[in-house]
Amino acid sequence: MISATCVAPVNIALIKYWGKRHEDLILPVNDSISMTLSTDELCAKTTVTASESFETNRMWLNGEEVPFEGSPRLQRCLKEVHRLAVANGSQKVPPSWKIHIASVNNFPTAAGLASSAAGYACLVYSLSRLYDIPLNEELTTVARQGSGSACRSLYGGFVQWHRGALDDGSDSVAKQIAPSSHWPNMHVLILVVNDERKKTASTKGMQQAVKTSQLIKHRVDKVVPERITQLREAIANHDFQTFAEITMKDSNQFHAIALDTFPPCVYMNDVSHRIVSFIHDYNEIMGGYHAAYTFDAGPNACLYVLEENVPHLLDAIQKVFPSDSFDSDTYLRGLSVPKVDKSHKIDPAQRNKIDSLDIIAKNAFRYIIHTKVGEGPRELSADNSLLINGLPLEKEK
Amino acid sequence: MISATCVAPVNIALIKYWGKRHEDLILPVNDSISMTLSTDELCAKTTVTASESFETNRMWLNGEEVPFEGSPRLQRCLKEVHRLAVANGSQKVPPSWKIHIASVNNFPTAAGLASSAAGYACLVYSLSRLYDIPLNEELTTVARQGSGSACRSLYGGFVQWHRGALDDGSDSVAKQIAPSSHWPNMHVLILVVNDERKKTASTKGMQQAVKTSQLIKHRVDKVVPERITQLREAIANHDFQTFAEITMKDSNQFHAIALDTFPPCVYMNDVSHRIVSFIHDYNEIMGGYHAAYTFDAGPNACLYVLEENVPHLLDAIQKVFPSDSFDSDTYLRGLSVPKVDKSHKIDPAQRNKIDSLDIIAKNAFRYIIHTKVGEGPRELSADNSLLINGLPLEKEK
């Protein structure tokens, strides 16, 4: 019996992946760029165990067993890992041994964060440790076949997923643009918004967008390639102004494409749009971009903000989106935030303008997660295992 | 002293006008097509009086005097009318005579309907009656300079506003595609949605879209020209299926462009999007398009529906968007609606599906206006005048 336990991060796209050119291989219609978030606040954790004695492949997700055979994507990942093990001459695990997998997220699914990206990245990385396969571009093509954006979670820092040109997808790989140490003060606030609408699943939404949006082609052909170049340069130069503008514009355009889909897909809600409007007002007061929003296929806002600006931004958020639970332990999660030093760094005129902002909405968020740029997946010691003798420790939450 | 009193209709765009190629002349970046609504339910009413004894031009809007000199658009319209009067050899009103104008809308501004289009169409049409100028394409260029889409309200039925190519705008004219008698059973339900957000004024929104949206060019160059051709054909053939699909797609795309604007413009709200989702569900149950939504620069839905389908649609609306005031006199306004004959016209399986739809939102609408395709502006008899000896009758509401 042989085991590996790993954690893998969530990543948030700055330039969005939306639309596939091949459904099964999960080949995207355009390049995307993301930032990897620290696993200290948000991560998937996976244990994979292989044994001669296991009769079938089995899997537990957040403590519940799920049918292994029911997931073609899961099976494809495992098959690809087997292929890479052979290609790499790895003989650590005999190919006949079945595997057991247990995976948990340390954040509630309700947060609407891209749990499948972290989950598949963690699965593929764990399998790569088990089968002794190096982390390289080829491994990102395996994660990509589990969940497209999972390929970006195999690296820390800033990551580009290249669309690729080949039909077999072998050049549709993720590559690191810059490690997290390149821009360590890049922080993130995730505003988790209350929402109960049924939404189009993103796989379906993408398919429909490619089929029916008349604007997506222009985005893919013209807009994204330019933005990729500009954003890479902004990251290289620590140019937060350009970084913020491209990030916000690309989030808006992704949602515009979703709306141009027929029937339209709507992921942001009134609260999301109020956050957008507030961030523009806030940046105007600050005389430049101090915060940039981005929204994935859901209503939650992800705000990029440099560390030194976090206290001021959070102070303003609490002013316009006050919450009765602001002082509770569970409202503001993750990294601690120093108190705003009112005498420091912010102009009195700006302070006055912030202080005179009206309340936009009360109790609009379930909670706020404060995190930052982080590293890629890593292996943990055996005492972190989620499986004992191939079976779950206990029902994980 | 000489007077004319007229009414002019509201029009609702099927293919949207969004973006100018010339700000002052109000020349659009693309053609648009609209349907004119019956003046029985919604109209602007204007009296223009010219007299040798008037010392200055004056104007009253909904009973309140407004500064005449403060409106360059108003002055431009008057100047253009003077020019046309000379060109047409009309000597009915000496050019030195000043004019008094009174204008009212028979619908609350709160309805968020395009009151300026009806208002300027009514002003220009009334002036044309006063100065004895024929209604022709040239007159539509005058209304266009008051408020772009006003040019479309000079005709009944289905109307196309041609973008034109000339710099002076002389070929940016409205032309009737088909009179209201061509498709007399084309009805409309306007769902007036509660909303209190501040919104970007449409003039500003358009300017920003042209400046910052990277998708608008593709819409203007490729999408709209195709849709214009298809919609004209659909109207010619009474093809409600194509009519509905193009109308819904173009509404969605207009809002997509607004969202792709930077900062983004958001006109629809959560209720608007729930209406969209409901209409798609409803059409799916009905096995074809029975209703088509369109949204202008605000949250209100305008639903196109053939007369024979109005009772079923309204019944379903009341099921999913129930209102406590449904039976009040002021909730369902305009044309009367025959009761749904449950034994008639609707398949029992469909009826069951409609009956089992869940409530989406309660009291989501202020009221509903039921109207239909209608005629262009017309002159009323002198006893309808809003001015007596050049002064308002009373404070109009």
UniProtKB/TrEMBL annotation, chains A, B:
> Which InterPro entries does UniProt cross-reference here?
GHMP_kinase_C_sf, Mev_decarb, Mev_diP_decarb, MVD-like_N, Mvd1_C, Ribosomal_Su5_D2-typ_SF, Ribsml_uS5_D2-typ_fold_subgr
Q: Which GO terms describe its molecular function?
A: ATP binding; diphosphomevalonate decarboxylase activity
Q: Where is the Diphosphomevalonate decarboxylase-like N-terminal domain?
A: 8-174
In its UniProt entry, the species of origin is given as Drosophila suzukii (Spotted-wing drosophila fruit fly)
GO annotation (BP), single: isopentenyl diphosphate biosynthetic process, mevalonate pathway
Q: In which pathway does it act?
A: Steroid biosynthesis; cholesterol biosynthesis
Protein name per UniProt: Diphosphomevalonate decarboxylase
Give UniProt keywords alphabetically: ATP-binding, Cholesterol biosynthesis, Cholesterol metabolism, Lipid biosynthesis, Lipid metabolism, Lyase, Nucleotide-binding, Steroid biosynthesis, Steroid metabolism, Sterol biosynthesis, Sterol metabolism
The organism sits in which domain of life? Eukaryota
What family is this? Belongs to the diphosphomevalonate decarboxylase family.
EC class of this enzyme? lyase
Q: Which residues form the Mvd1 C-terminal domain?
A: 188-379
Q: Which GO terms describe its cellular component?
A: cytosol
Function per UniProt: Catalyzes the ATP dependent decarboxylation of (R)-5-diphosphomevalonate to form isopentenyl diphosphate (IPP). Functions in the mevalonate (MVA) pathway leading to isopentenyl diphosphate (IPP), a key precursor for the biosynthesis of isoprenoids and sterol synthesis.
Give the gene name: Mvd
Q: Which EC number(s) does UniProt give?
A: 4.1.1.33
Q: What is the lineage of its organism?
A: Eukaryota, Metazoa, Ecdysozoa, Arthropoda, Hexapoda
Q: Reaction(s) catalyzed by this protein?
A: (R)-5-diphosphomevalonate + ATP = isopentenyl diphosphate + ADP + phosphate + CO2
